[in-house]
Predict the 3D structure of the following.
Amino acid sequence: DLDGTLVNTDTLLESALQLLKRNPLYILLMPLWLRNGKANLKHEIARRVRLNVAALPYNSPFVDWLREQREEGRELVLISASNTKVVTDVADHLQLFSTVIASDAKNNLSAGRKRQRLEEYYGAGGFDYAGNSNDDLAVWPGCRKAVLVNTSDSVAARARHLAAVETSFHSQPNPLRKLLKAMRPHQWSKNSLIFVSILVSHGYGDSELLTATIVAFIAFCLCSSAVYLINDMLDLEADRQHSDKKKRPFASGQLPLMYGVVATPILLALSAALAISVGSWFSAVLLIYFILTLMYSFALKRFVLLDVLLLATLYTLRILAGAVVGESPPSVWLLSFSIFLFTSLALAKRYAELKAMDPAKSNQVGGRGYQVGDLAIMGQLGTACGYISILVLALYIDAPDIAELYSDQHLMWLLCPLLMYWIGRIWLVASRGELDQDPVIYATRDRTSYLVLALGLIIVMAAL
């Protein structure tokens, strides 16, 4: 079998996601294709998409065993319910199989149909069969011996009653744990920007406002996790060509794609319910955030500079969301400061990705439009945006209406050199090739950043 056995993924889902990434409107055609049968759906998708079979997450221990069997003279046949184009491409890549049997435009070769086809070719009991799923339970009774690959405990137990088991390969990690990892809870720290507005406006003493802000924070976490799942499912091929991203649960095949397909709408529904409970304005901001992230995932991430501006906007939207929770207009100072600061950090992220690349292997970031030669201009733009944010902070501190918020307004000037040091350090770390993750996430794990934050809070408290 192919899906879940030879490869740790579902090639139909991968092909469908790749097609949707090319044009989301194809989702309207898929039900029409399915009306003519699942085989037709597979055929129509395979006709428009060609998977990069060399990058698929193959089941290495099983493939190694197959090579040994072939060397011993055993005939290997690849039989799958996937479309014949996909199955043939995989077989051509591995060069292991003497025969390929697969679904065509009219016949969906799954479960009982697969057993029938095998018995037509080799006779009842004339073949051994390696599979992994419930569908394969219909095949094993007709085989001589069964090979169990990545089966659940329940499928394995039932299979042992249906056929003699030759050998088994078990490498199934806990899918729920992998799903949680794919949701990237470590990225939730970015959503703490929702609390910035309540801190700046000194509204943290209002218990009702604080509760609403916490609920808004949870809603943003659920929504952002759904977006991460969507992004990872759409970026499978690019992630598999990245030194670190290839280890992500979907890209590595450790987490079945179906978990992401099911979990995404559930997370979005929970997020929407919480957002509605907070208020209509917050719901509108969260909806805008979700739409922009989808636009980023589907298309805008490929456009040079536009992608970093959009990332900065998404960070700023978190601050805006915190402001609308209390139904207070966001400060122009705060929004201006955040858009420049986060543009600098987004550029630092791209700079670090380019810095980590080996020019001898590739000149361009996968799925992006940046080239290694862009490093110099990226550094100039990023540091410029960072220090413009400090200028905005200085103008804010000197604004006449700000004096009403602080008993000693001049103490706030100490924030400027503190921020100058932190931004300069982030870019210094990036230029040395030591910034191996999102700068915001880096800051949450960096002792120096915590020290800068603590000093900043002390300065603000002293100025109140």
The beta strands are 77-83, 99-103, 129-131, 145-149, 164-169. The radius of gyration is 27 Å.
